[in-house]
Structure formats: structure tokens, C-alpha cells
Specification:
The complex is a heterodimer of chains A (about 280) and B (about 300). Chain A is mainly α and about 280 residues long. Chain A contains 13 helices and no strands. Chain B has helices spanning about 1-15, 20-50, 70-75, 80-110, 115-130, 130-155, 155-160, 165-195, 200-205, 210-220, 225-240, 245-250, 260-270, 275-300; strands spanning about 55, 65. The radius of gyration of chain B is 26 Å and the shape is globular. The interface between A and B is large, with 104 and 96 residues.
């Protein structure tokens, strides 16, 4: 009993905060509930649970707004961009950490310093430059810009990690006759897996949720836009078609929730590591 | 025998020297260098030039005008300063509220058990959802949802025109930003709290320090490193505030929620004053760097080393 008395304030505080946390996700639940309602119910009975679960508006939205196409686009971009970053960033970060010359310092500055520059301060000239070299509005152009922007942060994170990896392993592999690339790929890369996981998780989230770059590169092109851009161009205008917007939001968000539920540990670790090092 | 091994050692170190030569450095970094140059370095350098021109976006039409753009922004552009003021005001509200709330949440939830794990996950969920979905969710709730609650309860809070009244819309933007990001800062504070050695806390308890004293005298000073990080992240979020404005308010009503970043976007892609907009983005960049450096200087001093 005495023990309980001592613990009681802590339990009370935790439960209060827990209830608050529940309220925190309540807006999302409200959207899910309302997405099943008809327009009339939505407007008159906002807080009530839906009377019947009907997937009618889901199916309509799925077909009407070509959601499968948008989701596939986004999935494609996420895979390509993440692969691009994960292939090229560790290579560069590894060599930068292992080489100590004026040139490597200069390259380091070019690769890492841009991470400090806010996107809005070069977005105009970036879109113009992309248009000049004929990449504006293409999938390739979008992927290149996303990879380039993800690169600086990834190189920075991995560079810090490489310095903690001991030299002996790669040296002995190299002396035993492995080529430089083999040494990197067979010996160094596996050792970098923890930090690469972090980078991957953050990059996936960033790319999947991106709207600004997609809007600037693709405009309102139905063929190549991603899911966020599609949601925005259809539903953010003044007179909103909520009957289709809400199922659209839910379907666009389900992948995020699944990703969060399965990768929670890595996401939280990655976000913390990213913030602490950045 | 000894000679042999020194010889072998010399051979090895010679081999190792060639392991990280200049050509290898270039070979390994070239893809990253090309990508970063195309996307960031070259555009940023172009910015410096186009800030001095009158430009409609077609590169052959840029006319050199010297410092005219900067003069115009500094002395004849009230919209830029109005939006600058919005960003600063938003920053003050956002930084204070989000840091206090997330630190409170971290203090309540940092001990590991099933309830706190679930509570943390709930607070973190909005952070992984895209800004567009977040903005649309809140647009629905603030317009038709609140209207509906108001009709039923008559509470004035829900009767406000949350996105239509310039004064209230500001708080709507603050509210949504805090709602989305609190989990992020909470996670950083939790990481900081876990790193506080338990023997210090126990010693304080034995000496008779209450929860309040423990927080102010022990936990907060030892958390200053996390505070530095969170301040840095929240200030830079506030300065760069863009997506949520783009989807939720489009700068309205009556330009009351136009951030600096959105001002730059509008100047370039809606008014087609590319030259002026690039000059603005240079000013924006300098401002971000200065604020960041000042903030780091101030909070770094307060960090406590054990």
C-alpha cells in the first residue's frame, strides 16, 4: 500500500498524459470515421460514428482520381530516390572520411555544407536550371533533384559513422588482394548497415511525403505527379469535395501508418540521430 | 626474420598509401558530387547572379540592374516585411509552445512501460503523415467539423471562423504545426532524459529534493543539449514554414498567414518576378544563417558537462 502511495502521483501523471495522447490522434480517427459517411451525415453528425460502413466513396475515389496510378508513382519515386541515396552517399562518405588531402576537404565542403542551406533559398534557380538542361517535368529530373537534396544530409550522417569503423579490416582485405571496390562493397558497406538503415528510413519518409519539389518539377501533370501533389491539386481548392477527399486522405496515409507501425524503432532512432547530429 | 617482417610491413604500408589515392577519391565521390552540384551548388550560385537582374525566368532575358532588387525589397516592399513579421511571430509562438509541451510529454512518458510506449506512438504518429494530408485533415475539421460542433453546443470557440478570420487563422497555423511536430521534439527530449545518470537523481531524492526542484536544478540543466537541438530544429522549421501554408491557407485570409518562404514562392511562380524573388531568397538565406548562429552561440553556453 505504501509502495502504491509513493507511485501514485507518477501513475496519475502518466495516465493523464496518456489520455492527452489519445486525444492527439483523435483528429485522425475522426477523419477515418467520417470517410465512411455520406455527405449529409458528415455535415450534420460530425462526431458520431458512422451508421453503416460503406466503401462506396472509397471505390469511387479509387477510380475517379486514379489513385492506384498516383500511389505507384510515389512508390516508384521512393524506391529510386532511396536507392540512389543509399548507393552513392556511403561511397562518397567513406572515401571522404578515409582521405586526408586538400582536395578531399574541398569535396567535403561541397557535399556537406549545402545541408545547412534552406530549400526555399535555391528552389527558383533549381527549377530554372532543371528546365535549362531539359529535365523539368520528367521522372528522371524529379528523381535527380530528390537524390541530390537527400545526398548532403546522408553523406554528413554516414561520414560521422565511418570514422568510428576500425581501419584494420579493410586494410587486411586490401592487402590480401581484394580490389578497392571489392574492399568497399564486401567489407566496409556491411559495417555501415546501422547508419544506412537510419538514412534509408528518413529518406523513405521524406520522399513519400514530399509535395513541394514534386509540385515545382511536375506542376499539375496527372501522369507524373505523386500522391501528395495529387491530393493537394484536387482537394485544397476552396469548394472541397469532402466525400472524396476524406477517403483519399485515408488511402494516401495508410502506407505511412503501416511504415510507422513496422519501422517505429528505426524511425524514432533515425529521427533522434538525425536531429542530434544535424 | 625481423628484417623480413619490416620489409613486409614497408611493402604493406606502401600498398595502403595507394589505397586512398586522389583518383580513388574522385571515383568514389564523383556521382555524389555531380548530383549535389546540379541540384544545389549550381542553382545556389545562379541565385547570387540573378539577384542582381530583372528576370522573367527565361535565362536569355535577364537584365543586369545592380542593387535595384535589394533596394526595392529593403525600402519599397511592405509585403516582404509583413510576411517577415508573420514568420517571426509564428516562430515565437511555435518555438515556445512546442518546446514546453513536448518537454512535458517527455517528462511524463520517458519511463519505459507499455502505456508510455503506446502514448509516445500516439504523439508521434502525426509526424510521419504527409503535410498535405495533415493540412487537409485540419481543413475539414476546422471548417465543417467545428461548424457542426458549434451548431450543437453553441460554444463560441467552435463558432470562430478558423480559416476565414485573419487573426484566428494565425493561431490555426500554430496549432496545426504544434500538433504535427510535438512527437519529434518529445523523442529528442526523451533521449536526453534517458541519458541522465540515475545515481544523480537518487542522490537528489535522498537529499530531499522534490519533483519540482529536481526538474529545475538537475534535469533541466542536464537537458540543455537537447534544448539546443530542439530550439535549432524548431526555429528552422518556423523560418522555413511553407507546405502547410501552401495547402491550408494559400497565404490568406487577407495575406494574414503568408510566411517569408511562401512570399518568395509567390513572387517567383505567381508574379513571375524571378529576379526580385532570387534577391529575396538571398536575404532569406542570410537571415536563416544569422539566426542559427546567434541561437547556437547563446544556448551552447548554457550546456552543462558532467
Amino acid at each position: 500500500m505504501n509502495h502504491f502511495k509513493k507511485k501514485f502521483p507518477q501513475i496519475l501523471i502518466t495516465s493523464i498524459v496518456f489520455v492527452c495522447a489519445l486525444c492527439w490522434v483523435y483528429p485522425i480517427l475522426l477523419i477515418v470515421f467520417n470517410s465512411f459517411k455520406s455527405y449529409k451525415d458528415m455535415m450534420t453528425d460530425f462526431l458520431r460514428l458512422p451508421n453503416i460502413i460503406s466503401f462506396k466513396s472509397y471505390i469511387e475515389t479509387w477510380k475517379l482520381f486514379d489513385l492506384p496510378h498516383m500511389l505507384l508513382n510515389t512508390l516508384f519515386y521512393t524506391i529510386i530516390v532511396t536507392l540512389g541515396v543509399v548507393i552513392f552517399a556511403p561511397m562518397a562518405a567513406y572515401k571522404l572520411a578515409r582521405t586526408n588531402s586538400k582536395l578531399s576537404k574541398f569535396i567535403g565542403v561541397i557535399l556537406i555544407l549545402p545541408a545547412m542551406v534552406p530549400f526555399q533559398s535555391y528552389m527558383i534557380t533549381m527549377t530554372r536550371f532543371m528546365a535549362n538542361i531539359g529535365l523539368s517535368g520528367t521522372r528522371l529530373g524529379y528523381c535527380i533533384s530528390m537524390i541530390g537534396m537527400g545526398m548532403t544530409f546522408a553523406v554528413f550522417m554516414i561520414n560521422g559513422f565511418v570514422k568510428t569503423v576500425p581501419l584494420e579490416l579493410e586494410e587486411s582485405a586490401y592487402i590480401d588482394g581484394a580490389s578497392k571496390f571489392q574492399t568497399y562493397w564486401k567489407i566496409v558497406f556491411p559495417l555501415l548497415v546501422p547508419i544506412i538503415t537510419t538514412v534509408t528510413v528518413l529518406q523513405v519518409l521524406n520522399t513519400w511525403n514530399d509535395v513541394t519539389v514534386n509540385l515545382l518539377m511536375m506542376g499539375a501533370n496527372q501522369e507524373t505527379m505523386n500522391i501528395s501533389n495529387a491530393l493537394m491539386s484536387r482537394f485544397s481548392s476552396q469548394a472541397s469535395d469532402w466525400v472524396h477527399a476524406l477517403p483519399g486522405i485515408v488511402m494516401a496515409t495508410i502506407p505511412n501508418i503501416i511504415f510507422f507501425a513496422t519501422m517505429q524503432k528505426y524511425i524514432v532512432e533515425g529521427v533522434t540521430a538525425g536531429a542530434v547530429k544535424g | 626474420m625481423k628484417e623480413q617482417s619490416t620489409q613486409a610491413f614497408k611493402k604493406h604500408s606502401k600498398q595502403l598509401k595507394t589505397m586512398h589515392g586522389t583518383s580513388d577519391l574522385l571515383a568514389f565521390t564523383l556521382p555524389a558530387l555531380i548530383l549535389v552540384s546540379i541540384v544545389m551548388v549550381i542553382p545556389f550560385c545562379m541565385n547570387l547572379y540573378y539577384g542582381f537582374t530583372e528576370w522573367n525566368g527565361v535565362s536569355s532575358n535577364a537584365k543586369f540592374v545592380g542593387f535595384n532588387n535589394y533596394k526595392k525589397i529593403l525600402f519599397h516592399d511592405p509585403t516582404f516585411w509583413r510576411d517577415m513579421w508573420f514568420s517571426i511571430k509564428f516562430g515565437l509562438f511555435y518555438v515556445v509552445i512546442v518546446n514546453i509541451l513536448s518537454m512535458a510529454a517527455a517528462l511524463a512518458l520517458y519511463r519505459q512501460n507499455k502505456i508510455t510506449t503506446l502514448g509516445r506512438a500516439f504523439l508521434f504518429v502525426p509526424f510521419v503523415i504527409s503535410m498535405v494530408a495533415i493540412s487537409l485533415i485540419w481543413k475539414f475539421i476546422l471548417t465543417s467539423g467545428f461548424q457542426n460542433i458549434y451548431e450543437k453546443t453553441g460554444w463560441a470557440l467552435f463558432g470562430l471562423s478558423w480559416l476565414g478570420d485573419p487573426k484566428v487563422a494565425f493561431y490555426a497555423v500554430v496549432l496545426i504545426s504544434v500538433w504535427q511536430n510535438i512527437g519529434f521534439y518529445m523523442v529528442i527530449y526523451i533521449a536526453g532524459l534517458i541519458n541522465i545518470p540515475t545515481d544523480i537523481l537518487e542522490a537528489a531524492k535522498i537529499d530531499g529534493a522534490g519533483a519540482w526542484t529536481t526538474f529545475w536544478k538537475i534535469k533541466l540543466p542536464l537537458l540543455m543539449q537537447s534544448v539546443t537541438i530542439c530550439l535549432f530544429c524548431s526555429i528552422s522549421f518556423a523560418l522555413k514554414l511553407f507546405d502547410i501554408i501552401l495547402v491550408l491557407t494559400k497565404g490568406g485570409p487577407a495575406n494574414a498567414t503568408c510566411s517569408v518562404a511562401y512570399n518568395i514562392y509567390r513572387e517567383a511562380f505567381m508574379n513571375y518576378h524571378y529576379g526580385l524573388a532570387t534577391a529575396k531568397s538571398i536575404i532569406f538565406f542570410l537571415l536563416c544563417i544569422i539566426i542559427t548562429i546567434v541561437q547556437m552561440r547563446i544556448t551552447k553556453k548554457r550546456e552543462v558537462q558532467l
